[in-house]
Amino acid sequence: MSGGVDSAVAAARAAEAGHDVTGIHLALSRNPASYRSGARGCCTIEDSNDARRAADVIGIPFYVWDLSERFHEDVVEDFMDEYAAGRTPNPCLRCNEKIKFAAVLDRALALGFDAVATGHYAQLRPGADGLIEMHRAVDHGKDQSYVLGVLDQHQLAHSLFPLGDTTKDVVRQEAAARGLLVADKPDSHDICFVADGDNAGWLREKLGDRAPNHGGAIVDDATGEELGRHTGTYGFTIGQRKGLRIGTPAADGKPRFVLDIEPVTGTVTVGPHERLAVSRLSAIKPRWCGTVPRRLEGTVQLRAHGGEHRAVVATGDGAVEIELLDPAYGIAPGQAAVIYDGSRVVGSATIASTSTGTS
Amino acid sequence: MSHSAHESVVYLDHAATTPMVPAAVEALTAHLLDVGNPSSLHASGRRARRVVEESRETIAQALNCRPGEVVFTAGGTEADNLALKGIYWARQAADPRRTRILVTAIEHHAVLDPVFWLGEDEGAHVDLVPVDRDGRVDVDALRALIEQDPDTVALLSVMWANNEVGTVQPIDEVVALASSHGIPVHTDAVQAVGTVPIDFAASGVDALTLTGHKLGGPYGVGALVVRRELEVTALVHGGGQERDIRSGTIDTPAIAGFAAAVELAVKHQAEHATRVSALRDRLVAGVLAAVPDAVVNGDLTHRLPGNAHLSFPGCEGDSLLMLLDARGIECSTGSACSAGVPQPSHVLLAMGRADDEARSSLRFSLGHTSTEADVQALVEAIGPCVERARAASR
To answer: Exposed (0-12), middle (13-18) or buried (19+): which is B208, by Cβ within 10 Å?
Structure first.
């Protein structure tokens, strides 16, 4: 229970369905103020109090579990390493894979619980093969199956997503009707441990000597000309347009985007939007929700709030090759490609490289 | 897990707070509808004042101090703050060389935090006095610390008995040492009043903290007993109601309830200690029989009668607490929380325990409503709970 409206209603629904529910708030920082301050995210003292009050109202026991060390090792360190290497990670997937549906689930199972229920918007249902399938939420605008695409069959079999069949509006109304004071609490955004949403500033401070560079050239992709300087490649992500601070406009007057990040030399390459087009993805570290597909014509989603791209997916040797039938723009290594068959999540993999060529 | 409503809760957390005794409820409620500010000059004010002063005399008699030495506060934390900051500032004002504060490493946060604040914000030098493996203050180390430069010591604070592991401190030796150098001694006795014999005048301490809700009285009321001759600078300024040391309208009903509880607790201290320590001994024996590798922490002889503090190797105290709670058995990890994030107990760390040993501990504390059935319930539950908690930390 993060202290937000979704997990509060999920807990209330699980309890009402007759489950023996215990509320758990995850303390993800030893020193809460050091991660988030203000009312924007998870893991403030205020959030833990909100979660506790929601549990009181629902009438379930409530505890705070200290997962701060595991969170730091598995999520925060990984986030820093990935940015330092010039990639763009999604820490929410990582947290679901390693913390919420691993460290928390394992401890819960050992303590005698059967499942972890969360306020994620996704649907679980039994499939024809007897396995548990995960599908997109009814509310496509809130669907969070993307960040759950890392869950395997064991994890899914011990998960409950009581909100998957409901729209966010209805969840808020239900929270109000249930007397939960978090009913109109704003949604959390961004990354919970980056207090002000300033990734680059946070990384600059935390990476310190681990940063691969503290500056370098911003280079034009077509001419090789140096257009400006920057203060660290970790401040950039592929497809980024804002914050490049290039003095001279492009010859054609069109905006320029980050095309490539080279952490060793510290070079950030920029160019026009069409150069961001990607039609092939190579991805590694696949995680499958159920049976591993050999070849699949389905769709992929490449970022948390991104659209679907029709794709042909081929697997083998721990790698996944994805041919996009609808081109995608600004895809960065490190992002997760989540693979769908209709509304069903098949699995996910971490993008290692992208190209524009066809096979 | 089963969280069905338990008809009878097994309450083993009396050191956190203990139920009010009927005499205190009666004394408190008797005055709830009375009008009259004890500081008012009219008849209603005088009637309220009389209740307060009689309560003060009752407490003075129970603790063997003079009534004028009882300064009512809004509880133990305020009394500790008043003692530490008030005495430090007064001693500083009298002689600016007095910059050192000596406190044991196992004090409650109500003592440690004001002292650390004085260190960080007021230029005090804080010396933490070490304890032995049983949590008894190391008197030789204390002597050495004082004798480094006795004239620079502003005050010394040693709790009468530790709230987590229950170890009773050698207050006599501490006072003998401090008084030979003219250093005032404060003691936090919130766990000790009513559970061990306390005689303020005979003890020689200069200031003593007690609080209502730990001895069968109401929450939100306590006192600092402070020797008449000792200068204390005020923290809360206003009407100067309490000896000009503490301001704020006096809470007549709460003070009446508090005094009734103190009187009763002190009167029945010996029989309470005998009954409760026998229960405690059976609790410890039963737990050790169920979990042979559990370890009892704290001093076995110099110990609060109701305290049982044990480490369960391979368990996280938090898991164990939750599993017991689900069975209606309530205890404490004894550790301080910030935002509910459990930190390893500073008391156990000061006693030389490792981080994971400290995290594997639980405190069971018995009190005036504890029964044999409570002990039996814990003894029956602890084995399976420990087994499960161990599985969860693998």
So the answer is: buried
Which residues of chain A lie closer than 8 angstroms to B323, CB-CB?
Answer: 111-112
* A86 SS3 class: coil
Given B65, B315, B337, B385, the catalytic residue? B337
Exposed/middle/buried for residue A349 (C-beta within 10 Å: 0-12, 13-18, 19+): buried
SS3 A89: coil
- CATH number, residue A241: 2.30.30.280
Question: Helix, strand or coil for residue B41?
Answer: coil
Locate the chain B residue with the closest alpha carbon to A48. B339
Q: Is the pTM value of this prediction over 0.80? A: yes
Inter-chain contact A32–B2, Cβ cutoff 8 Å?
no
In a domain, A333, yes or no: yes
Closest approach of chain B CAs to the CA of A12, in angstroms? 15
Q: Which of residues 4-23 of B touch A (CB under 8 A)?
A: none
In a domain, A206, yes or no: no
Q: Between chains, do B319 and A48 touch, taking CB under 8 Å as contact?
A: no
Q: Whole-angstrom Cα distance, residue B190 to residue B208? A: 9
Structure confidence by residue, pLDDT tens digits, B38-80 = 999 999 999 999 999 999 999 999 999 999 999 999 999 999 9
By Cβ distance, the residue of B3, B319, B338 closest to A111 is B319
Query: Tell me: the pLDDT tens digits for A132-159?
Result: 999 999 999 999 999 999 999 999 999 9
- Detail the residues of A annotated as belonging to a binding site for ATP: 26, 119
Query: Rounded to the nearest 10 degrees, what angle do helices B252-267 and B22-30 cross at?
Result: 160
pLDDT tens-digit readout, B266-277: 999 999 999 999
Host domain of residue A228: 212-271
- Cα distance between residue B272 and residue A113, in whole Å: 40
The DSSP annotation for A262-292 comes to ETTTTEEEEE-GGGGEEEEEEEEEEEESSSP
**Same domain (yes/no): A11, A153:** yes
One-letter identity of residue B189? A
Kindly list the catalytic residues of A: 95, 192
Q: Which residues of B touch A112 (CB under 8 A)?
A: 1, 323, 388
> CA A341 to CA A288: how far, in whole Å?
12
The answer to whether residue B385 is catalytic is no
Residues of B in contact with A25 (CB under 8 A): 340
The residue that leads in pLDDT, A251 or B88, is: B88
And the tokens for A254? Answer: 């069109």
Bridge partners of A351?
A283
pLDDT at A44 over 80: no
B2 close to A (CB below 8 A): yes
Q: Is the CB of residue B341 less than 8 Å from the CB of residue A68?
A: yes
> Cα(B298)–Cα(B166) distance, rounded to whole angstroms?
6
Tell how far CA B356 is from the center of its chain: 25
- Residues A106, A175 within the same domain: yes
Please report which confidence band the pLDDT of residue B82 belongs to, taking 50, 70 and 90 as the band edges.
very high
Please return the burial class of B123, using the count of CB atoms within 10 Å of its CB with bins 0-12, 13-18 and 19+: exposed
**Of A223, A255, A271, at which residue does a domain stop?**
A271
| Residue whose pair of structure tokens reads 């006096």 in the numeric block | B250
Domains and CATH numbers, chain B: 10-20+269-393 (3.90.1150.10), 22-267 (3.40.640.10)
Q: Looking at the complex, report in whole angstroms how far the Cα of residue A301 sits from the nearest Cα belonging to chain B.
A: 36
The CATH number of the domain where A87 resides is what? 3.40.50.620
A65 close to B (CB below 8 A): yes
Report the number of distinct structural domains present in chain A. Answer: 3
Q: Which of A64, A111, A116 to mutate to test the interface with B (most CBs of B within 10 A)?
A: A111
